[in-house]
TrEMBL record:
This is Chitin-binding protein. It comes from the Bacteria. It holds the Pfam family LPMO_10. Residues 1-21 form the signal peptide. Keywords: Signal. It comes from Streptomyces cinereoruber. The lineage of its organism: Bacteria, Bacillati, Actinomycetota, Actinomycetes, Kitasatosporales. The keyword Cell wall biogenesis/degradation does not apply.
Amino acid sequence: MRRKITSLLLGLGVVGGTLLAATGSAQGHGYTDSPVSRQQLCGNGTVRGCGQIQWEPPSVEGPKGFPARGPVDGTICAGGNGRFSELDDPRGGNWPATALTAGRNHTFVWRITARHATTDFRYYVTKDGWDPTKPLTRADLDPQPFLTVPFGGQRPGSTVTHTGVLPQKSGRHLILGVWSVADTGNAFYACSDVKF
């Protein structure tokens, strides 16, 4: 009897460990809270019809190396992750937009649920004339980030803030935040719709 109980407990441990391993990526990692990202708008219920991302706003993880590598055009806001394709849907250009003042300082805020060694945080903005009714492509973005915050491989806290000067833009735009992880092949992507 003792041998059967031990085998049962061992089997449950293996199954439990397998379940943990299989669901580990759903634990999430991080997203921008300021300006509010599309995944946060879905997670807090502001935007409906978001599919799985509503339960996993910190999980928009994809290949790092943006813009040379990373998610393919049209899948950037979802980090190339098909499970979160609702983030790439421009919704006719009607995502709620955060009001920002061009040329002013803004404090960017990331909520981190799994603290990874970090290379940097980078922020890109769409070019003037960008069409908000189409999925985001590299050609839509200014080629250089307007803000880069090096992290030197350190682990961030549960909330990361850094201040930078917003670009000189007017009208509706999209800010792409990319959090590059130092010790994996991935990065986290967050698209924030803004209005200057």
